[in-house]
Amino acid sequence: MSKLANETAKAELGRATWKLLHTMTLRYPEKPTHDEREALEAYMHLTSRLYPCGECATEFQALLKAFPPQTASRLSASLWLCSVHNEVNARLEKPMFDCSKLDAEYDCGCGDATTSTAATDGRPKSGPSSHDADRMELMDLEWDVAKDDVTGVRMIKGGRMVI
Ligand SMILES: Cc1cc2nc3c(=O)[nH]c(=O)nc-3n(C[C@H](O)[C@H](O)[C@H](O)COP(=O)(O)OP(=O)(O)OC[C@H]3O[C@@H](n4cnc5c(N)ncnc54)[C@H](O)[C@@H]3O)c2cc1C
Asked: So what does this thing catalyse (predicted)?
């Protein structure tokens, strides 16, 4: 006998998944290596393929096609995911999330320990120093470039595409 859909379990899975994905992008290196960038991109694509809720997986795959993962920095990755989550919120008629509040919302409880040697490396030449970067507000986007330098994809900033 086939199982009935269970909206409560689907929503719980969604909340847990979003929590993991957002927390991960907010701990992603400020200046990722090529390997780390590929890992994050692959992680998102594999999640969209293997996500247990079929409807959600199809939706996520379509979103990844329309808005390819932005992996150039912690800022671009976390704002990209926030925007993608807002796309899902819009389709489900849920309220939009203010992406400037990401930092306050997600704490992995890991303290200051870094997950990558790249995270303690210097900033991109065009950006602020690593000391400044640690204290940088999420929505302080002035140093950021308009396009992802690996994929050429236009950045989504604060939930909207840069024209
Ligand atoms: C990839 C993916 C695709 C999904 N597709 C579907 C689908 O097609 N159909 C379906 O019914 N369900 C889908 N879900 C589940 C759905 O998105 C919700 O997780 C679920 O409905 C529970 O919603 P919620 O109101 O508790 O908040 P959620 O959307 O789960 O959000 C959890 C918390 O995250 C915070 N939050 C909200 N928006 C953002 C944002 N933009 N950025 C950062 N934080 C935010 C808020 O504090 C919120 O309470 C999907 C989940 C995932 C991970």
From this structure: 2 R'C(R)SH + O2 = R'C(R)S-S(R)CR' + H2O2
